[in-house]
Amino acid sequence: MEVGRGSLDRGSPAGGRALSSHQSPFVLEWSQRALVGYDARSNTTRTFSSAEEVAGATREAIVAVGRRSVFIRSVRVPDLGYDEIRQVLQLRLGDLFPVATQDLAIDFQLTDDLNAEGRLAIVAAMPTIELARLYADLRAASVRIIRVVPAAMASALIEGVDHQPSAVVQQTVDGLAIDIVAGGAIRQSRVTNLPQQIEAEICRTFGLTGLECGTIVSAGGLTLPFADLTVKESGLTALYQAQDKLSINLELPEEVAARRNRERSRKQRLALLLMAAAGVLGIYVFFDYNDSIAATRQVQTRHDRRMRALKTQQERLETALAATAAQEKELDRAYRPAQKFSDVYTILANRTNAGVWLTGVTLERGKAFSTRGVATSNEAIASYLKALSSEDRFRDVRLVFANNSTIEEVPVVNFSISGFPVGNLPLVETKKGAKR
């Protein structure tokens, strides 16, 4: 039993199999009653009595299996990959066909009809015993089979049959064929030998698909007075003109198995070649990796040696930089003090008030200043002391002494005031416990 793949593109090969792109000019309808062939080169249709007679007309053909030898069903399948759909169909074959599934050769075609229930698939099945006889007869006559398709599927390819539900009626060797086409795909196919009841049979066939009676197309030169459309084109002619649009190909299970074995062997050979190539590549990569590791280690050793030298040089430079920074700090302290001595002298002089004269000022780096002077009264000294104490540039301003005295019989007060100029740092910091 074989379930082939279909395709959303009706022109793609069935089952993912690489079907021959060669288009034969000869289409042969095979049934148990007769063989009917259409030759596109002469645009003629004729009936053959045997496969040997067919061989006299052509050496290759597309075979359309008559409607009485093929089952066609439409079924919803999950919108999955082809292999998964095939597995689903294999589980449901017993519900689709009234024949033991192991005795069927099956293929399917996917349509564009997709809804919440899944994608619509057209499944074709043929008893393997009849398919084997078909292959045996034609091959014995040296007729090459391009592909095997259900003849009913050609109705969907007849010009004028659109996506509206239509019933294509035409005369075949098996009888009057009624093919229901909807959405561009065959939905149901029947053959009847009761031409006087053909209209009722058409509506009954519509009902089997769950569709209401739609357009009736009379094809292949058949004349029906109640037909909505009459076309001269037959199913065989349509199959020739659009043979590359069918994606179904019925094959014998043993041929499918042989093809799969060939494909499996090809894949195994390819896998072995890839494994061998991977082994060679692995050996090359191994040796190249070892060489790369050795080269990397050499580079790393040189890099580490260079980094150690640079780190030593960095430490020397950082030591020199620290020494330079200390020298810069000392120079800044010496040549850029927070307050110049001239500024201190100026403030001490400018803050004197009436009745106060300065006689001397002592000022050293890192020490408090000491100013001496003469005043006419203690109140004048107090006023001068207050002025210096309010000065932001000084701190710890205090009166050291104030002694009464006379100068040429004029009473005066000799005084001394000390204070510390803010920011008056020593030139050299003296460490605790060390000699200056």
Strand order in the largest sheet: 3-2-1-4-8
What is the global morphology? rod-shaped
Beta strand count:
17
Structural class designation: alpha+beta
**What is the average of the pLDDT values?**
85
Secondary-structure element string: EEEHEEHEEHEEEEHEEHHHEEHEE
Count the DSSP helices. Answer: 8
N/C terminus separation? 112 Å
Unreliable stretches (pLDDT < 50, length at least 5) are 1-19
| Largest pleated sheet | 5 strands, mixed
The percentage helix is 25-40%
Task: Explain how this protein is built.
This protein has 436 residues and is α+β, with helices and mostly antiparallel strands. 36% of the residues lie in helices and 29% in strands. It is built from eight helices and 17 strands. Strands 3-2-1-4-8 form a five-stranded mixed beta sheet, with helices on both faces. Strand 14 and strand 15 form a beta hairpin. It is rod-shaped, with a radius of gyration of 57 Å. The two termini are 112 Å apart. The N terminus is likely disordered.
Can I get a quick summary?
It contains 8 helices and 17 strands. By secondary structure, the chain is α+β, with helices and mostly antiparallel strands.
